[in-house]
Amino acid sequence: MSVNKEIKRITVHILQAMKKRGEKISMLTAYDYSMARILDEAGTDVLLVGDSASNVMAGHETTLPITLNEMIYHASSVVRAVKRALVVVDLPFGSYQGNSRIALESTIRIMKEAGAHAVKLEGGVEIEDSIKRILSAGVPVMGHLGLTPQSIYKFGTYTVRAKEEAEATKLKTDALALQEMGCFAIVLEKIPAKLAKEVSESLYIPTIGIGGGPHTDGQVLVTHDMLGITKDFQPRFLRRYLELFDTIKDATKQYINDVKTGDFPNETEQY
Ligand code: KIV
């Protein structure tokens, strides 16, 4: 199915209508202006300014170190590039957990200073107060269940979540609770496809999967993984559409060679 050109600007209501009519939702991460322009022009429905910027852009091992100021910088660059996509911004670790007033203050900064359209928070019923307070200010909230990387030190590994019945049951309860609270969509990360299907079918709001199989209402990938800019990360769920690490490296080697040999710049590449 090609991009729906009738849609001028994606809203949370359009995403819910897409679920209703069985149209899959495409979501990718974006952290900077130039890449966001390309992804938006291609017709990506949702651009997520993910806290994966902590890994991909800053080289940290986890998503925990990225700050609210850094997220606002990335988000404002993305928002300036976008004409059609809905821009969702991750609330970073420490900017919402355990204190709904801080959660609202963080959200207001993201909405005012970056011009974002919605925020995403990791977790279920334990962050209900924060979600409700953000929603009461009129800001759309996307949930995130399953593998929630901000809790990596609690999990211990990045392996598939909710394989055991108790965790699967909690995830199903959390998904319904997030819907009940008023979230407009939920990311389901790295859970069994069967569970993702069951959860997606139990909700009227869309689910966006990453490593959750084909039955979620949409899919998301980290753009740098999808384009092969990152090289060492090869989980089973990832499909690489390019090998840009090697392409860019080869082009760079060619440039270096041209500089060293005096081939660049030539007669037409000067004033
Ligand atoms: O930060 C991120 O990129 C994410 C996606 C993997 C869903 O949360």
Task: Give a quick summary of the entry.
The protein has 271 residues and is an alpha/beta fold. It has helices at residues 12-21, 33-42, 53-56, 68-81, 100-114, 128-136, 152-155, 165-181, 193-202, 223-226, 244-261; strands at 25-29, 46-49, 86-90, 118-120, 141-146, 185-189, 207-210, 218-221. 42% of the residues lie in helices and 13% in strands.
Blueprint (SSEs and pairs):
Layout: H1 12-21, E1 25-29, H2 33-42, E2 46-49, H3 53-56, H4 68-81, E3 86-90, H5 100-114, E4 118-120, H6 128-136, E5 141-146, H7 152-155, H8 165-181, E6 185-189, H9 193-202, E7 207-210, E8 218-221, H10 223-226, H11 244-261
Parallel strand pairs: 1-2, 1-8, 2-3, 3-4, 4-5, 5-6, 6-7, 7-8
Helix pairs in contact: 2-4, 4-5, 5-6, 8-9
The protein binds 3-methyl-2-oxobutanoic acid (KIV).
3-methyl-2-oxobutanoic acid binds at residues 29, 48, 50-52, 90, 187, 189, 210, 220, 222.
Write structural notes for this entry.
The structure is a single chain. The protein is α/β, with parallel strands linked by helices and 271 residues long. It has 2 domains: 229 residues, Phosphoenolpyruvate-binding domains (TIM Barrel, Alpha-Beta Barrel), CATH 3.20.20.60; 27 residues. 42% of the residues lie in helices and 13% in strands. The chain is built from 11 helices and 8 strands. Strands 1-2-3-4-5-6-7-8 form an 8-stranded parallel β-barrel, surrounded by 7 helices. Helix 4 packs parallel to helix 5 and helix 8 packs parallel to helix 9. The N and C termini lie far apart (48 Å). The model has no long low-confidence stretch (mean pLDDT 97). The site of 3-methyl-2-oxobutanoic acid (KIV) has 11 residues, from strand 6.
